[in-house]
From TrEMBL:
Transmembrane segments: 12-34, 40-59, 71-95, 161-180, 186-205
Record protein name field: DUF1275 domain protein
Superkingdom classification of source: Eukaryota
Keywords: Membrane, Transmembrane, Transmembrane helix
Amino acid sequence: MQTGTSSLSAWLSIHHTTYLLLGNTVYLGLGLVAPTEGIRWVKALTSITFFCLGSFFFSRFHRFLKPRARWVLVASYVLQLLLITTAAVIVTLGNDTSNEIHWQVIVPLAAVAFQASGQAVTSRVLQYGGLTSVVLTSNYCDLFSDPKLFAASNVERNRRIAAPVLLLLGAIFGGMFAHSSFGMAGALWAAVVLKAIVVFAWLLWKADPEDDN
């Protein structure tokens, strides 16, 4: 849900998404063919670069520490929270520079893309590699390829259904904020609140003794 809200917020505030790397790669390719026709390829390159840097950082952060320990997960999400809060502050206080190559565009993009990679890495750390909150293509494929799709009890199917539904709800939630008096910045702040809720959820989540020791 937070992914949907923050992705929509990025699109509305700086007219670009930080989560869809396939689309960003296409934008980058189109931009390299005609680099003077717009700056979307610069935004795409920023998103891809900082998502990759974030993946490099968060994977090693978990690997070098105790990957599934509560404090490691909390620390990871606190950092993600700080990054998305930084983006929200810049969008709230800054001017409308979405059509320019400006630090008020590049920094929020970089911050949101970097923190988004943390979510993807967490799905791997928790051994839910097939269920990521960042891209849903493989999720849809796995869902409708599941031979037990219509079984009464199927935990994996239920997770794969919940992922796009919650993403959609997050986008709707963010859209409601964006079209209210709070505006586009309000949608991004909503994503901040949802990320903070995840941090508190990690603090309260029942621990596996083997992971938390």
